[in-house]
Amino acid sequence: QSVLTQPPSVSGAPGQRVTISCTGRSSNIGAGYDVHWYQQLPGTAPKLLIYGNSNRPSGVPDRFSGSKSGTSASLAISGLQAEDEADYYCQSYDGSLSGSKVFGGGTKVTVL
Amino acid sequence: QVQLQESGPGLVNPSQTLSLTCTVSGGSIRSGSYYWSWIRQPAGKGLEWIGRIYNSGSGSTDYNPSLKSRATISIDTSKNQFSLKLNSVTAADTAVYYCARDSDWFDPWGQGTLVTVSS
User: Fold this and answer.
1) How far is A54 from chain B (nearest CA, A)?
2) What is the pLDDT, as a whole number, of residue B58?
3) Cβ count near A42 (within 10 Å)
């Protein structure tokens, strides 16, 4: 059971917009800790996609955007492309777990 | 740019100690104010943070409470490496182990190394 909750899967047709939620609680996201997002393509290491809730590292397309409100965060992918089919993970920090980094359980994005 | 590479045995016997090393290239492990973390991923499952070490001073460490009693992370700045030891392993510790630079977020990551616990 992950500390941060994500839907197991989302899907969309090419060109559509999909969103992935990441729900936490008052000891992590709700306490003001930043949320970061990673993309993991099959058989590869995770790659940083969004840091500090809404910032894109250099090279990440602006189709990817992040937001945070209250005890939740969201990752949006607009103009969905076949190459976006991957697993996506949110990550934050939990102050109640002796200072532990925590991940969501991951969301599989399928491009129909 | 900074790159990370994990190394170590791919097979460990149950009850023994898992030992992995992460070699940092393209920059000094002492540069900047960073932590260096270990993260693992069992096959078909999600990511689990194991712990981290600071790159300067006393090399302070933080661990996932669920693994704290078994995990030890150390750093060797002369070799630009940091290491993980996980003792008393069981089949549940079978996973791909990643190392990563920790700036609150993890970036970059190593490619990962599969460790199987089995006799």
Assistant:
1) 12
2) 75
3) 7
Burial code (b: 16+ CB inside 10 Å, e: under 16) for B43-70 equals eeebbbbbbbbbbeeeeebbbbeebeeb
Note the pLDDT tens digit of each residue in B50-96: 999 998 767 899 999 999 789 999 999 999 999 999 999 999 999 99
Mean pLDDT of A20-44: 97
Q: Do A100 and B105 touch (CB under 8 A)?
A: no
On the CB side of B51, CA atoms within 13 Å amount to: 24
Residue B78: CB partners within 8 Å, gap ≥ 6?
none
Question: CA-to-CA distance for A25 and B35, rounded, in angstroms?
Answer: 25
Q: Does B46 touch chain A (CB under 8 A)?
A: yes
pLDDT > 70: percent of chain B: 99
Nearest Cα of chain B lies from the Cα of A69 at a distance, in angstroms, of 19
Taking the Cβ of residue B106 and every Cβ of chain A, the question of whether any pair is shorter than 8 Å is answered with: yes
Mean pLDDT value across residues A23-51: 97
Q: How many CB atoms lie within 10 A of CB A14?
A: 11
Distance from CA of B77 to the nearest CA of A (A): 24
